[in-house]
From TrEMBL:
Signal peptide: none annotated. It comes from Camellia sinensis (Tea plant). Keywords: Iron, Metal-binding. GO terms for molecular function: metal ion binding. InterPro entries: DIOX_N, IPNS-like_sf. This is Non-haem dioxygenase N-terminal domain-containing protein. It holds the Pfam family DIOX_N. Residues 70-136 form the Non-haem dioxygenase N-terminal domain. It comes from the Eukaryota. Residues 17-29 have a biased composition (Pro residues). Residues 1-13 have a biased composition (Polar residues).
Length: 380
């Protein structure tokens, strides 16, 4: 698969999982977290077929609530953009974006390209999109309750197949345009919330992934991968299910808007100030409103990190006032479900230990244990 300017390392083969990335922790992890990461590294060395359990279904008692997330205009003429972003980030962890640069025609053409991928045979999928974790074609061999399995494709921003037989020009253009919007959101979010944006000085500090998955009633399997922000273009009136800090929610659709979710990396960067969504949104079929489109796909653009990255809070620069350092982070109280990600610790105090992005990404991708907050082990 061709790589782009912002790409993930292409060093992992198809018969062995990638080796762990050695890292030095600025803040030592608690012994329990350190032990868990040692176990993760050991499992990381196992062949893919022996690595980790692949499926845990949510308990039947899970309650889903429907909510209408804020509608935020990305227009430069919007005087309340930063205020709106701050409010949505601290209260919900997701919102709908309007007045963006993505045209409905481009989104529909990209969807057409994506749908064509699922008409290929499994052999063709493997040939055109070989697995190079997390890139390539992934087939979940474990069937869901209705006897179906879940296929997905993960592309870098170039969206280039191994073969020239397939043309994905619309999907490629759509991915590039969505990436631009995602980077705009990261910049505005850093200004609104008050953390340093690493992309300003070095664009290679982040990369983008386009994740395309199948969705159908009874088939709710989804691969999880950590990210800063996720973008899902709302092509039609369809609800999406999200696992937010406040619990399982179903968002009210807004056609031609972009559903933006804030991920676990954004929560760490903000030092726990904002709420997050665990994993990617997935089409919801709970109310039967999607019967006319019972089988659909999900196209998620994730602004994420290169595998070799370290993750840690990006506190704003300290300013000197009368000889005393003054940190400008605001304190946010959050009592939802006992979540302490935005507690009232002293301003400027780190609320997360630093950790290896590769180890973290590998663990949640294979375990899919997101009913329990995967960041809990790194909290101070």
């Amino acid at each position: 698969m061709a790589s782009s300017t912002h790409h993930l390392p292409n060093s992992y083969g198809t018969t062995a999982a990638p080796p762990p990335t050695p890292s030095t922790q600025p803040n030592p992890l608690p012994s329990s977290a350190a032990s868990a990461d040692v176990l993760s590294r050991l499992l990381h060395r196992l062949p893919p077929t022996l690595s980790l359990p692949t499926r845990l279904s949510p308990p039947p008692t899970t309650i889903t609530t429907t909510t209408s997330p804020p509608l935020i205009s990305l227009s430069p003429q919007n005087p309340t953009l930063l205020t709106d972003l701050l409010s949505a980030s601290c209260q919900f962890g997701f919102f709908h974006l309007t007045n963006h640069s993505i045209s409905p025609q481009l989104a529909r053409s990209a969807e057409s390209d994506s749908l064509s991928l699922f008409t290929l045979s499994n052999d063709q999928k493997q040939i055109h999109f070989p697995k190079n974790w997390p890139l390539g074609f992934d087939c979940d061999d474990n069937e869901d309750d209705d006897g179906t399995s879940s296929d997905s494709f993960c592309f870098d921003s170039a969206c280039s197949p191994e073969s020239t037989e397939l043309s994905l020009s619309s999907l490629r253009e759509f991915t590039r345009e969505m990436e631009k919007v995602g980077l705009e959101v990261v910049e505005a979010l850093s200004c609104a919330v008050g953390f340093e944006n690493p992309v300003r000085e070095d664009p290679t500090r982040v990369c983008s992934l386009m994740w395309i998955s199948e969705g159908s009633p009874g088939n709710t399997t989804v691969r999880f991968y950590p990210y800063v922000v996720g973008l899902e273009y709302q092509i039609r009136c369809r609800k999406y299910s999200l696992l937010a800090d406040s619990g399982r929610v179903s968002d009210s659709p807004r056609v031609d808007s972009i559903l933006v979710t804030l991920g676990d990396i954004a929560q760490v960067w903000s030092n726990g100030k904002i709420k997050k969504v665990r994993g990617r949104p997935f089409p919801s079929f709970e109310d039967g409103s999607n019967n006319n489109n019972a089988h659909c796909i999900s196209m998620s653009l994730l602004v994420t990190l290169p595998l070799e990255s370290m993750v840690s809070p990006l506190l704003p620069k300290l300013t000197v006032n009368n000889g005393e350092e003054d940190n400008q982070l605001n304190k946010e109280d959050d009592d939802d479900n006992g979540d302490t990600s935005a507690d009232t610790r002293e301003d400027g105090a780190f609320k997360f230990n630093s950790f290896s992005f590769e180890d973290y990404a590998w663990r949640i991708y294979h375990e899919r244990l997101l009913l329990k907050d995967p960041l809990a082990r790194y909290r101070i």
